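INTERNAL AUDIT FORM
Audit reference: QA-55
Scope: verify that the stored structure record matches its stored sequence.
Auditor: D.O.
Record contents follow.
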Amino acid sequence: MFAAAMVVIRAFKPALPDAGWFVGTRVMAAFAITALVRMAAKNSPLLERLGISKTGLMVGGPLAGAVTMTLGFAAADACVGGLPLTLPGPADAPNRLGIAAHMVLNLIMLGSWSAAYFGSHLVRDQQAAELRAFEAETLAARNELHHLQAQISPHFLFNSLNTILACKQSPDDIETVTQALAKYLRFLLRPTATLEPLAREMDALQDYLTIQSFRFGDGLICRIDCDTDIRRIPVLPVMIQPLVENALKYGRRADGEPLEVAVRARRDGATLLIEVANTGRWAEPHEAASTNTGLHTLRRRLLIHGGPEATVTASESAGWVRVVICIPLSAEYAVPQTSTHTPELREIAG
């Protein structure tokens, strides 16, 4: 600011003596006035008592400061020069124009500093509000996930125990189901991170569908198909399991045929695609058996963590219901790290 003022003075008043002192005193005065404005802006009780808003302070502060600076320095210059200070009148046009010019320059200087200060605080407050909103949404999504886990665990546990009882004639089957149940409950009830490798949930789905295949027997055909090079990609925890549970719950509307459930995860360029498909028909939200809250919750979670490009779409065609999750990959995972794309295919049968 000092350098800019010196350039202006040298351009318009090259003969002015002690230009550095002239500019320095005004810059220091401007700094003191803006400091007072900043102090007043931080003292909300004082502003409330005076009935002044921050917007009024931002506009009125520089204006009052410019008037004070202009008249104050005009008086000082008149005293130093031995001349009485008189307000400019019609017969004193040069003096009037000089004071008006100083007023405009002081107002520009104070207004610029004030705008920069209040503008930075406005941006900071807006960013802080957005951060608080993001944290609130994240906390709500996490609480919703914990609530979902609390709902799933007892229901799933009761069915699994009944499945184990049904296998009492086969010790090998009891061992298989019990181990799968123990591993799946360990996955489901553990503390979760914000993002976890895709492989963690895919392995848990293997245990989940193993239990379900023993429960439903020949009435269920399951398959997990996951490209090996995407298993390390971080995704939201417990993202696919609710979709698979919905497929088992609502997919048995097929006409007497075994229910088929297929989970497929693959990379399509810079996008991770996860598809959960089942035979049967789509259960509309207005039907008593379905509320579609699971899809709504998943969409919200993806929006928070992946932005608007992360989507969940559902469709029905040729006797299959498909739910597809599209997640944009970061630069680290957008390009395959290896040349192999051999899928990891798992057929699950009881």
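Auditor finding: record pair retrieved intact. The first helix runs from residue 2 to 12.
Action required: none
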